């Protein structure tokens, strides 16, 4: 079950930095959640962090993307593997002494 942000969003900016999967982004009018990146924080936290910090409670389960906990875990593993692969492909940062 990916989450979604409803049009009740007040664009307070507290949810976006809390997402460990970078699934939250500013849409045309209010924040949105990419269902392909949302794991409801499975693999990171016990509870969805965006839901915990939202002051207006506008982040319900997205009925168009219902997923089991097992499916969310598999998505977390795919995202983590892709992130690790991307990090390994990046050139090393220059050292401070250089």
TrEMBL record:
Q: Which Gene3D superfamilies match?
A: 3.30.70.20
Instruction: Report the protein name in the record.
Output: YfhL family 4Fe-4S dicluster ferredoxin
Superkingdom of origin: Bacteria
Q: Name one GO cellular component term.
A: cytoplasm
Position of the signal peptide: none
Cofactor entry: [4Fe-4S] cluster
Could you give a GO molecular-function term held by this entry? 4 iron, 4 sulfur cluster binding
Task: Report the InterPro entries cross-referenced here.
Answer: 4Fe4S_Fe-S-bd, 4Fe4S_Fe_S_CS, PSI_iron-sulfur_center, YfhL-like
Indicate the segments forming the 4Fe-4S ferredoxin-type domain, all copies.
1-29, 31-64
- Which keywords appear in this protein's UniProt record, sorted alphabetically? 4Fe-4S, Electron transport, Iron, Iron-sulfur, Metal-binding, Transport
Q: What is the lineage of its organism?
A: Bacteria, Pseudomonadati, Pseudomonadota, Betaproteobacteria, Burkholderiales
Q: Which Pfam families match?
A: Fer4
What PANTHER family does this protein's entry cite?
Answer: PHOTOSYSTEM I IRON-SULFUR CENTER, PHOTOSYSTEM I IRON-SULFUR CENTER-RELATED
């Amino acid at each position: 079950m990916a989450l979604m942000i409803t049009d009740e969003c007040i664009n307070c900016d507290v949810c976006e930095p809390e997402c460990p999967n970078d699934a939250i982004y500013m849409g045309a009018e209010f924040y949105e959640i990419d269902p392909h990146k949302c794991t409801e924080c499975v693999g990171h936290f016990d509870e969805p962090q965006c839901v915990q910090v939202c002051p207006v409670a506008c982040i319900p389960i997205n009925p168009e993307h219902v997923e089991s906990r097992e499916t969310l875990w598999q998505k977390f593993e795919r995202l983590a593997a892709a992130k690790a692969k991307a990090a390994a492909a990046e050139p090393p940062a220059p050292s401070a002494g250089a």
